[in-house]
Amino acid sequence: MELVHERQVPAMTVSALFLFLVITGSYGYTHLFFSNQPSINQFYWMMDRSAGLVAYELLAFSVVLGLTTASSMWDRLRLRRVVTQLHQFSALLTACFVGLHLWGLHLDQMISFPWPKLLIPLASDYRPFPTALGVLTLYGLIALIASSMLRERVGVKAWRTIHFAYVPMFILVTFHGMLSGTDSTQPWAIWFYAVPFFLFIVLMYVRVGKYKATLNGKSRPKLHRTVVPNSVRIDRIQSEDVQTNKDREAARDTAFP
Ligand code: HEM
Questions:
Q1: Which of 29, 34, 133, 229 is most buried, judging by how many CB atoms fall within 10 Å of its CB?
Q2: Which residue among 45, 101, 171 is best mutated to probe the pocket of ligand 1, counting the most ligand atoms within 8 A of its Cβ?
């Protein structure tokens, strides 16, 4: 059994390559063209903020798509495969931009963020609690992506349990961005958080409602189109025919004794 499904290898390669090129490229660019540390700091500050914001929107996109995957809408539109792949790829890209977010924070020497402060919750001196929410989200993201890549090994039940981490993760990272971010007070940034968070709440409400309805048997669970082999179908039709004939005869007999 291969470690990661072959279908996921191209997406992973593209993401890893993208991350590697941006990290090495930015490092080369700043150390070749910037003459002093303050301007290098400025560059990496811009990188950590923009990468953080892009990571948040990509995560929101992946979560919203994920919440709609149960809907039959994508079957009707014949888009289920595309939506599933977009859901997976946007989660991978989120990881890339979180990598750039941390790289920017690490190289911006205005506020020191050695790796331990980036990876241990509450270790940072800068806004410790909001930053810790980011660290927890990071581990949630790693668990989600790793368990999805290794789904056949971890098993569907464990995978599904781990996958529910997306709920606290998205709530935590929304507060992380709003409480620790420089741009959070900007009018555009408020929409940046409000729109995806509103969508998340609405789709969660619909999803939980559907789940409760299924539990209470109020809505018949969707009948999956089970493929019935021809031989069985013919037997069934014949037996139904016989029965109907019998009924018809009985009815006729009663109707016309
Ligand atoms: C899934 C993971 C993460 C996402 C999606 C994320 C997203 C964000 C966003 C959207 C901002 C606001 C940026 C702004 O307003 O300009 C932000 C700021 C920040 N994040 Fe994260 N973050 C994540 C993980 C982390 C981690 C692991 C750390 C580690 C300590 C961290 C530390 C920070 C800091 C210090 C800021 C303030 C930066 C500034 O405004 O200058 N984040 N993050």
A1: 133
A2: 101
Look at residue 234 and give its three-state secondary structure: helix
- Same domain for 256 and 136, yes or no, is no
Question: In angstroms, what CA-CA distances link 93 with 117, 178, 201, 235, 253?
Answer: 23, 21, 23, 52, 72
Same domain, 119 and 211: yes
Output the residue whose Cα is nearest ligand 1's atom 25. 134
Note the pLDDT tens digit of each residue in 93-127: 999 999 999 999 999 888 889 999 999 999 999 99
Ligand 1 proximity of 62 Cβ (cutoff 6 Å): no
Question: For residue 253, what pLDDT is reported?
Answer: 53
* Mean pLDDT over the full length of the chain: 84
92 in Cβ contact with 11 (< 8 Å): yes
Domain count, the chain: 2
- Same domain membership, residue 231 and residue 206: no
Q: Are 166 and 141 in contact (CB under 8 A)?
A: no
Share of the chain above pLDDT 90, in %: 49
Domain membership of residue 256 as a residue range: 227-257
What's the CA-to-centroid distance between 148 and ligand 1, angstroms? 24
